[in-house]
Amino acid sequence: MRKSRAKKRERSPDPRYADPMVTRFVNNLMLSGKKSTAFRVFYAAMDRISEQTGEDPHAIWKKALANAMPEVEVRSRRIGGSTFQIPTEIRQDRKIAIGIKWLITYARSRNGKSTAEKLAAELIAASKKEGASIKKREDVHRMAEANKAFSHFRV
Fold first, then answer.
1. Domains along the chain?
2. Helix (H) or strand (E) holding 17
3. 108-140: per-residue pLDDT in tens?
4. What is the C-alpha to C-alpha distance for residues 90 and 102, in angstroms, rounded to an integer?
5. I need a surface site. Which of 12, 48, 77, 86 has the fewest CB within 10 A?
6. C-beta separation of 98 from 105 below 8 A
7. Residue 79 banded pLDDT, cuts 50, 70, 90
């Protein structure tokens, strides 16, 4: 085991938007260590968003990420031989991680030709509070609401 908690390292900002959060998103988008390919896909998706909507793609991406982030989640906990789904608040860092993961996962499962096309479609849908990633967030919130009776078991 570690003696102390690992330090969080600063992410370098991306070249186009100078936003470290974009770098974090691209790191999650990356497959097999191909970061330059992931950046190419992300920027192609951003260009596609600006073509389709005529708005700032960075703002749409931020809005989509904010809409996809869950506020609460359910965690399993065994109490007296029974397993309860206990709703818990989520730390900010984990909210972002979950939102990014859902956006990328549901973008990949969409119909479309290229990954950039699919990612652009999912981001546009999420910014309008539509799409599979938003549906997943709503399902998680609904599950937490249904299990609110067990919230007194929270650790």
1. 20-153 (1.10.455.10)
2. none
3. 998 888 999 999 999 999 999 999 999 999 999
4. 15
5. 12
6. no
7. confident
